From TrEMBL, chains A, B:
It comes from the Bacteria. It comes from Streptomyces coacervatus. SUPFAM superfamilies: Homeodomain-like, Tetracyclin repressor-like, C-terminal domain. This is TetR family transcriptional regulator. Gene3D superfamilies: Homeodomain-like (1.10.10.60), Tetracycline Repressor, domain 2 (1.10.357.10). Residues 21-81 form the HTH tetR-type domain.
Amino acid sequence: MTGAADPTARRRGRRTRTESADTRDRILTVAREEFSERGYEKTSVRGIAKAAGVDSALVHHYFGTKEQVFASAIEVAFAPALNAPEAVAEGPLDDVGERLTRFVFGVWENPTTRTPLLAILRSAVNNETAAAVFRRLIASQLLRRIASQLDAPDAELRAELAAAQLVGCAMMRYVIKLEPLASADMEQIIARVAPVVQGHLTGP
Amino acid sequence: MTGAADPTARRRGRRTRTESADTRDRILTVAREEFSERGYEKTSVRGIAKAAGVDSALVHHYFGTKEQVFASAIEVAFAPALNAPEAVAEGPLDDVGERLTRFVFGVWENPTTRTPLLAILRSAVNNETAAAVFRRLIASQLLRRIASQLDAPDAELRAELAAAQLVGCAMMRYVIKLEPLASADMEQIIARVAPVVQGHLTGP
C-alpha cells in the first residue's frame, strides 16, 4: 500500500512518513482547519498537503478527491455527533424533543465543535458539492436514524422540520448573531424550542 | 451634484450618463447580480463599476463603500418584502402564523426573489460585514415590525424563534435541498409549519 503513494513524494525529494494513522490524522486535522478557515471553494488539496507537510499525491492516495477529503474531515469532526442519535433516541419518546434540542445546542455552545460546524454550514451554503456531502453525512445519518425511531408515515419529513427549527436557531444565534436571540439564556431558548421539536417529531 | 461625480469618469475618457435614476438603477441591478453570483467577499466595487460600464468613483459617489452598495442592493431587492410586515400583521392575530409562513415561502418559491435572497444568505453566512447588513435590514426591519404587533414581554425573541423555523426550512429545502423536504408539497409544509410559527408568536 505505502509503495503506491510514497514514490511521488520521494521523486520530489520530500521526506514523508510511511503510511500511518499519524499521517492520515495530521492531514485530516489540517484539512479541517483549512476548510474551516477558507471554506470549501477556496480550499485546495495542494494547500492542505502543503500545510500538512506532505505531497498532494499522498492526500489523494489516502482520501481521493477534494470532495472526499472534505467528507472525511467532516466525518472525523462529527464522530461524536454522528453517534449521538442513539443517545438522543434512548429514553422515553415523549421527551426526545428536549434531548435532541439539548444535544444540538450543546454542540453549538462548545467552541471545539462549533468551529467545524460553522465551516460545514458555510461550505454547504456556498457550494453544491459541499451541500451534497452535508446532505449525505449529517442529514442522512443523523436525521434518518432519528426518523427510524418515530412511528409515523411522514417520519423523515417530521425529523427534517424539527431539524429546520434547530438549524434556523443556530443560524440566527451563532452565525447572524441576531439579538435578543444571540444573548438569550440557553434554558429560556430550550424551554421555547424543545416543545416545538417534540411537536414536529411526535405531535398529531 | 452631477459635477461632483462626472469629472472622474471624464478624466478617464469613459462616457457615462449624467447622474440620473437610470444610472443608479443600473448600478444597483448589476450590484445585485454580482453579489448573487460571487457572494459578498469576491464582489468588488471595481467589478460592479466595470459590469455597469461606469467608473468606480461614480459607484462610490452614489452609494459609498462596498458595504453600503450591498445594503442598497438588498434594500432594492427586498422593497416588497420590507413592506410586507404590515400586510402580514393586518388581519386577525390568530392566523398571523399562517400569513407569515405563506409570505416567506412565497418569496422563496418565486425564482425572482429567491436569487437575491440566496445571495444575501450566502453572504451573511460567510462574511461578518454582510451579516451586519442582514441583521440591520432584514432582521430589524422585518422582525421588529412583527414583534411590535405582539402583546408579549418577549415579543422580539418570539419573532426571532418563528423566523428561525422559517429560515431553517428555507435552508433545508432551497439551499441544502434535503429530501423529502425539498420536494414536499407546499401545502403539506405550511400545514405543519404555520401552527409552529403561530405558537412562537402568540402561544403561552
